[in-house]
Amino acid sequence: MEKVLVVGSGAGGATVAKDLAEKGMDVTIFEKGNWINAAKAYQCYDNMDVGVELLKATCVGGTTLVTAGNAVRTCQKEFKNIGINIDHELLEVERELNVNTLPDSHIGEGTRNIVEAASNLGLKMEKMPKFIDPLKCIPCGQCFLGCPRHAKWSALSYLEEAENSGVKILSNTSVEKIITKNGVVQGVKTDEKEYYSDMVVLSAGAIETPRILVRSGLNAGEQLFVDTFITVGGILKDIKFNKEVSTNSLWKGIDFILTPHYTSTTAEMLKTTGYGANDILGMMVMIKDDRSGMVTETGVVKENTAHDVGLLTEGSAVAGAILETAGVDTSTIVSTPARGAHPGGTAAIGEVVDTNLETEINGLYVADASVFPSSPGSPPVLTIMALAKRLAKYLSEN
């Protein structure tokens, strides 16, 4: 039985581990973080100030525990252009996660106001596809903190299936480097011991994966993107938008998207108005940012380029017009500082890995957003999982 070590338990790691175990392989997952109840996932945020604030979580299941449950297809055309077709795998993921839009009963007043206002401006917003079970979901605005009712899919579901198929999960275990011999993978070295295997799949995310690669003698970590975003918001009394399902509709611009979004940062910025969280209506502007960042052993740098600033400005203007049409007091509209939600690009296909996601080290693969050729500018979970499924098929067949 072939032995595979998977580093990281988020969208990519959980998927490849589950699928390989179902094919009869001996799989062990290494996870730097702890096991935690999904409802308390907010305790695992370990955000970084890298020029923009980079939002991420370290725990078993990774950042999937604190996503908004958004299920959009991203970079499908870009991958096809470099010879990678994931159409079938995307369909598989969508079936397994029961991806669908939520019923009208789960669309709050704030989101309805935004959709209607956008329509009045000639902008047609669509419902956001979600991996959320409407029968379990009682809208509460907690999606980004960890779902208290377990209505939202997270990698914990796949990890449970993986364990049932014999996968071993070692939490609180950091992988330091890859063990190699004559250019062939032999296993991994953690902070405590060495583990040996036939193959290794790195799915530690676009910050930690390149660090492990560099410590193992490969070049990685350059051309980081983060899907830079800001939230534009203002006062609309008693709207109670903060209690709604997060980011429940979508408008696609050129290289940016707009979606209804509440953040406590806006509430903090507007606290001097005398209004509170129940009185804020907001929209997220997320852009396809340039691959202008870098990950090193000791730090991360990602600053906005002139192109990034231009996209954020354009998106903010559209969001502001929609909010004004929706009834927001224009004298109260503010914009949060730039943040990043989806780091990637630091071990890109054609630069660090080939089209089978294999590095120069024979038997060492990468299955996370590190391999993306460009910023998706929208949630990448489905695409990461589709790539991981494609990799699992390749490894089991070869």
Structural account:
The chain is an alpha+beta fold and 398 residues long. The protein has two domains: 3-98 and 146-223 and 343-397, FAD/NAD(P)-binding domain (3-Layer(bba) Sandwich); 105-128 and 224-340, Cholesterol Oxidase, domain 2, CATH 3.30.410. It contains nine helices and 20 strands. The strands form four sheets. Strands 3, 4, 5, 12, 13, 14, 15, 18 and 19 form a nine-stranded mixed β-sheet that branches. Strands 6-2-1-10-20 form a five-stranded parallel β-sheet, covered by helices on one side. A hairpin with a 3-residue loop joins strand 3 and strand 4. Helix 1 packs parallel to helix 5, helix 1 packs parallel to helix 9 (381-397) and helix 4 (109-120) packs across helix 8 (306-325). The longest helix is centred in the last third of the chain and has 20 residues, at 306-325. The protein is globular and about 65 Å long. The two termini are 13 Å apart. The model has no long low-confidence stretch (mean pLDDT 96).
How much is the average pLDDT? 96
Portion in strands: 15-25%
Structure class: alpha+beta
Oligomer: single chain
Number of domains: 2
Number of helices: 9
Global morphology = globular
Low-confidence stretches: none
